[in-house]
Amino acid sequence: MTMIFGVPLAVFMGQLLLGLINGAFYALLSLGLAVIFGLLKIVNFAHGAMYMLGAFATLLGLRYLGINYWAALLLAPLAVGLFGMLIERVLLRRIGHLDHLYGLLLTFGLALIFEGSLINLFGVSGARYPTPESLAGGYQLGFMFLPKYRAWVLLAAVVVCFATWFIIERTRLGAYLRAGTENPALMQAFGVNVPLLVTLTYGFGVALAAFAGVLAAPLYPVSPTMGSNLLIVVFAVVVIGGMGSILGAVVTGLAMGLIEGLTKVYYPEAANTVIFLVMILVLLLRPTGLFGKEA
Amino acid sequence: MTFIKKTLASSIAIAATAAMATAAQAEISDGTVRIGYLADMSGTYRDLAGPGGLEALEMAIEDFGGSVDGAPIEVFSADDRNSADVGANTVREWVDQRNVDLVAGMVASSVTIAVTNVLEANDKLGIVSGSAASSITNEHCTPNHIHWVYDTYPLANGTARAVVEQGGDTWFMLTADYAFGHALEADVTKVVEENGGEVIGGVRHPFPTDDFSSYILQAQGSGAKIIGLANAGSDTVNAINTASQFGVVEAGQQLAGLLVFLNDVYAMGLDATQGLLLTTGWYWNMDDESREWAERYYERVGSMPTMVQAGIYSSTMHYLQAVQATGSDDTQTVREYMMKQPIHDFFARNGRIREDGRMVHDMYLARVKSPAESTHEWDLYEILTSIPAEEAYRPLSESQCDLVQN
Predict the structure, then answer these.
(1) What is this model's ipTM?
(2) What is any Pfam family matched here (chain A) (predicted)?
């Protein structure tokens, strides 16, 4: 059997693919963060909680309202996105003129509240969400068994990431958004409703997190702490990619998934730390991140 | 006349009890029995001990009558957040500022080992209910703690032996990378090898881990018949879920959960866990006595108790009885009395505390029921056999504990 640094080629290939799938999650989540930071300058520490709420909305929707997975894929991000817009209107807007740190603390507090309340209601063990029937089973690829559902996650995440990048970088709406954050007064003078644009953007970023939550529900136990476990990693991804860079978030997300996957094969004990090592290295060499622009 | 006689007699009785109570109180340091409950209240291990364990502790105190010979029993609690630092500092503070007599709970083994060192340095008593590492009463034994519910030795001895005997002779270990996982891995490896099997590979994963796909893929690649899960709590849940997504069982490999709690099985559901063999120190639906207690617990908490939560009640009761009998809360006096008294309650059968601090009692090999076999939502296990106390735990002749004269 062909070996790559002492690991059979088949296992190696399998790990690369799994790394890419995990990377797709990182990409989706860090994309939402990057959109919110890039356009609103809010360091959204509630992002992990929103991801968790997306998963919970999916679970509870099925349990109490009979909403199936495919409907949840649309409805959960919509519901959580609307909730996010409410938060932006009621809370975040009031501290918009203050230092970024206040936004960070406010969203962090919100995250703790959401998480704590759900821990009290549901405990931490979490509940299982059944894999939708049409995506059960898997493909025997020769070098590994690929569960259909994971293949779907990779596909869905890549499509959504690309669509988001396209909207922001290539459409008129995206141009308004970018302009609105560069010079809100000028945009307002042109008759664009900038506050509405900001609310919608926050709602959209949050909806992306919730979308990732729906994708995660059949993969991991739906538990109140699922977001906080992931959030720190996702922040590291955003920092490595360059704060606010859309392309950076997506590319780094996928790359970090791969690096983490390889660490799990060669030195599993370090799997939780490797991304932070990369972050330190990148910050030392390129303080603005790989795709970041000079401020 | 009879009325006067009765009154007189009861007044004398009351006066005598009061006098005794004062005498006893004089022995109880500052007139109060203080119990600190330390556990993971918010993280990975919350549901197996956590707030439910505190409720069990309070149930024991209420059932005992709320005081020991007139000395009130005070309870306080803290979240150790699975950090040895936080746990040890909390207990240090309890010793210095709150005059704690007993520290109960204790879940993550790394925290427990740190805390028992603090207890030893200050000569206070601890009863460990949640932790699993068998090293807690082996190389890390102290004259200041008792290990109550179970440890990794019977877990390995029960599950691993049963699995090897059924033909599962090649193993791949998924091990949580800290004290407990290492202890369990070592105990399992020993049992597997002694019974003619072989551990052909393994991976030590960070604690806690959400995504097990990579490790499951490695286990699949190893070709081992059995994938041994030397982890606990949400790690085990995640590993089993991931294995079911990757079709591990369909492809012919079997999982052996070495430490699986009732709440884990409940969370994963019977579809994913049916047929899983596991070793447990107690099960709520074991007999009338345990059912009766479990139902009272269920009324208060809303979920059925794990073996840890039941063990917290049982050990607290035994402790309070010892304080009452000796009229003292002095650590060594109480511990000595506890060791002399055999334990036989709704939790423990044939229980006794050995000189190394290990409370040995009968353990049980259980199988998770299939959805068809289960009659209601908490009907999860079938008890296959009981493992007698003397066989289940590490014999004293193999002990490395300083307290044991070999």
Answers:
(1) 0.83
(2) BPD_transp_2
